[in-house]
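Morning!

This is the sequence you dropped in the shared folder:
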Amino acid sequence: MSTNRNTADAASNPFVPVFFVLCGTSILCVLLLIVRGLEVDEFRYGFLLWNLFLAWLPLMTSMLALLVASNHGLSESVKKPALFVLGIGWLLLYPNAPYLTTDLIHLFIEHSFTWETSPESLILWFDLILYFLFSWCGLMLGYLSMNHFHDLVRSYFGRAAGWLFILVVSFLGGFGVYLGRVIRLNSWDVLFSPFRLIEGVRAGLDYRGFIFTILFGLLILIVYLSIISLRYVASGGIGRREEPAEWFKR
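The structure's back. Tokens below.
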């Protein structure tokens, strides 16, 4: 009985304000990309649109999971298998969100810009803001979708399991980003190229893959913990004696 109540509480408000902020940010990213294409007469960064679309998929999956969890017309015997399937799907799609941060590499390998005072310098700053907004949007999409599943895991298995979930998923996400950026695998390879996926995972289990996974895993984890702590402070928790314990009671 308590599990049902906790699950309903976790899914009671999936459409939090940050969702609408992310919608606006995504639209702004698209508009800035169009402006850049018109200004320099070259639509060079179209891949950012595709990557942004992929970054939205984990959030769409987690929101669907919350809707399933909050549907009182479904029995637990139906909800649990559905949430398990959605959880696996979300885990496969999740690296697409933080993956957007790796697109910053294109600023470093672009040789047509310089830091000197020149006509191109304004485009460089424009691109810097453009890539940062795309990257930030990816990190926030990843945070929000992870937070949805954090609440679901916590409601079913408890607080400790919820935080263990965050820790494990952060580094699995880091490894997923490595598989996408370096090994060049895709989420849909699970269905359409399973043997290629297996070989790619094997190739990723090396020293470079380990370091990359640790770095990006820490990035994901730090972003998540930072936003959660800010939410705690915003809720009025700062300055109270039970602050540390209550912070981890999310």
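Headline: Residues 24 and 107 are 24 Å apart (CA to CA).

More detail when I'm at my desk.
O.
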